[in-house]
Specification:
Blueprint lengths: L1 H33 L3 H10 L2 H23 L17 E2 L12 E6 L3 E6 L4 E5 L16 E6 L3 E6 L4 E5 L10 H4 L4 E6 L3 E6 L4 E5 L16 E6 L4 E5 L4 E3 L18 E6 L3 E6 L4 E5 L16 E6 L3 E6 L4 E5 L15 E7 L2 E6 L4 E5 L2 E2 L10 H37 L1 H16 L2 H12 L5 H14 L3 H14 L3 H8 L4 H37 L11 H6 L4 H6 L2 H28 L7
Antiparallel strand pairs: 1-23, 2-3, 3-4, 5-6, 6-7, 8-9, 9-10, 11-12, 12-13, 14-15, 15-16, 17-18, 18-19, 20-21, 21-22
Helix pairs in contact: 2-14, 3-5, 3-14, 5-6, 5-8, 5-9, 5-11, 6-9, 9-11, 10-11, 11-14
């Protein structure tokens, strides 16, 4: 019995101790809350505001993306490629149809699409089609043996030697030469930018389409002696039966500087947009022309082993004698990153920014440009990459403008509020004069007067300064009002009694007490400056092309045609600008409510 009573007493004692701890803990919590500093109270109130925290998350996400992602998706500000203009968002340019896998005979790459034929001669098309006409296959083609894709048209050859072409038919692309319709046996077809080429068994080359873009000039003894050929937008070159490379032009240019050492020994040729390449009978590759984006940096490991070569816009792919591949040149779209291939390659095809390799089993491997996340604009520039670059520029302009306006506003407002009297009257009249200036007309006039006589970097700096120097009156009035209330406090009187200088009292004692109000105003002004910069760029008086900002991206999408047909060019810039500015405003509102809880009741 005694033991039971002892246990009961011990339990009561334990419970009492727990109750005391709970009570003490509650008292400690209350005491801790009582000793929280104003900054801690503001922070605690702010992080419990769900709307404000959502704004913080959204803005930080956009900011980090604009800061970090350009490292992985760099952009050349001066890049333009009309062959990639107005491509819709999405991927799949290189996604070979399943029914073609394991049964591929030939594949050809167009601007943003590809075509192929299987071993039974059936046609397959995939990718982003520049025109719906490409999907309308001619009837009665029969079994196809060759096919070639261009910018927006296709040329094909069937087993009976008949030519077919479909897609855009401008510039005479549908007008096949009569000689090719009269029974000439064709050995190779080629679809180019706005032209088509065909080589006959007799070694004669025919072209049709845009004669002004590609005008063929045959030196004596070449027509009728052609083994194969290649072409780009500027020139066509041919390989003769005796192993010589001949440019089909009378003009001297980079393509005509054919190395004399290779003449008579060439077995294959290829062209990129800026250079030419040839494979000799000893398996070596020689290049000439303009070394743009590394198109002439031939890998030493392939020399002496090359069987065939193909060229894209700025890259080359070679098939080696052991069935493996080599590649060099531009890698903007991963054109040089060959996937893992565990079998021997029999055929290669390169064009524009992609490459295909067909193995002995008919399986197709592909790499290069597969699409654009947010599409392209009218100059073929990646909208996603420009959004990242434009975000950097827009936020930088807004941030520096806010820093300038805040510094001026704090100095003017602080001195005016503390000094009072004539100084206050003078500074407030100056503030009213600046605030009465019509901002947009003034910025437009100033930009138009001196904008064309300075560099683009100086123009950007000028926009930041204009935004900063014309945006400070609001924060100056706010600081003046806060300083007027604080200067009558006891700590200011004590500082004066201790002999602290006036500048020290203003900026070391008064301003720290109103700094939270300044931060809130600066945060809201940041969003305003971003919108103002975007507005100036939108109407053509801000940051100009080729530099990207969200404003001038919207400026290029003002036409009804773009709004109706190319929605991605305005939806993405408008959406990210709206989300960013709303997020900043939510942060500013959250800070204001945290600093002044009574503002929620108003």
């Amino acid at each position: 019995m005694a033991e039971k009573e002892n246990k009961k007493n011990k339990k009561k004692s334990t419970n009492g101790t727990a109750a005391q701890k709970m009570l003490l803990g509650g008292q400690m919590t209350e005491e801790q809350e009582e000793i929280l500093t104003p900054t801690q109270m503001v922070f605690r109130s702010f992080i419990h505001d769900k709307v404000a925290m959502a704004g913080v998350c959204c803005f930080l996400f956009i900011f980090v993306c604009c800061l970090v992602l350009p490292i992985f998706w760099p952009i050349d500000m001066y890049y333009q490629d009309v062959t990639q203009a107005n491509v819709a968002p999405g991927f799949g340019m290189l996604k070979v149809p399943k029914s073609l896998q394991g049964n591929a005979e030939q594949i050809s790459i167009g601007s943003t699409f590809s075509v192929g034929i299987d071993k039974e001669g059936h046609v397959y098309e995939w990718g982003q089609f520049p025109t719906e006409k490409l999907k309308k296959l001619p009837s009665g083609m029969g079994k196809l043996t060759q096919i070639s894709a261009g910018l927006d048209h296709i040329v094909a050859l069937n087993e009976d030697g008949e030519l077919f072409t479909w897609g855009n038919d401008r510039m005479g692309l549908a007008s096949i030469p009569m000689d090719l319709r009269m029974g000439e046996t064709i050995t190779k077809v080629y679809a180019g930018y706005q032209f088509s080429l065909a080589l006959t068994e007799r070694g004669r080359l025919y072209n049709w389409g845009n004669d002004y873009l590609l005008e063929l000039k045959f030196p004596e003894g070449v027509q009728g002696n052609i083994k194969t050929f290649d072409a780009n937008n500027d020139i066509a070159i041919v390989l003769t039966n005796d192993g010589r490379v001949v440019p089909l032009t009378k003009k001297t240019n980079a393509y005509t500087a054919v190395p004399e050492v290779i003449q008579g020994h060439v077995v294959d040729i290829a062209l990129s947009d800026e250079s030419a390449a040839a494979v000799t009978d000893d398996g070596k590759v020689y290049t000439w022309g303009n070394n743009i984006k590394g198109s002439q940096r031939v890998e030493e490991s392939v020399q002496g082993h090359v069987k065939a070569i193909e060229g894209g816009r700025f890259h080359y792919v070679v098939l080696l004698d052991d069935g493996t591949l080599g590649v060099w040149g531009d890698d903007a779209f991963s054109q040089t990153k060959i996937p893992a291939i565990n079998e021997s390659i029999e055929q290669i095809s390169a064009g524009y920014y992609g490459t295909y390799a067909i193995s002995e089993s008919g399986k197709v491997y592909s790499w290069g440009l597969d699409g654009y996340m947010m599409g392209t604009d009218d100059f073929g520039r990646d909208v996603f990459r420009r959004l990242l670059k434009g975000g950097r520029m827009t936020m930088t302009v807004g941030a520096i403008a806010v820093i300038i306006s805040t510094i001026i506003g704090v100095i003017v407002g602080g001195v005016s509020g503390y000094k009072g009297g004539k100084v206050d009257n003078l500074m407030m009249r100056l503030t009213e004069i600046v605030s009465s200036l019509p901002f947009l007309p003034f910025a437009i006039i100033l930009s138009a007067i001196i904008g064309n006589s300075i560099s683009e970097t100086q123009r950007i700096i000028m926009i930041m300064i204009i935004l900063g120097f014309l945006s400070w009156p609001g924060i100056a009035r706010l600081v003046r009002g806060s300083v007027l209330a604080e200067r009558e406090q006891e700590f200011v009187t004590a500082a004066k009694a201790l002999g602290v200088k006036e500048w020290g009292i203003i900026f070391r004692h008064i301003l720290p007490n109103v700094i939270t109000v300044i931060i809130v105003n600066a945060t809201l002004d940041f969003a305003t400056c971003m919108l103002t910069e975007s507005s100036l760029s939108f109407i053509g008086f801000g940051v100009t092309e080729p530099n990207a900002t969200w404003g001038n991206m919207l400026n290029s999408a003002r036409s009804a045609t773009v709004i109706e047909n190319y929605w991605w060019r305005w939806v993405f810039p408008a959406a990210i600008l709206a989300v960013c500015t709303v997020s900043i405003n939510c942060i500013g509102d959250g800070l204001r409510d945290a600093i002044d809880p009574k503002s929620k009741e108003r």
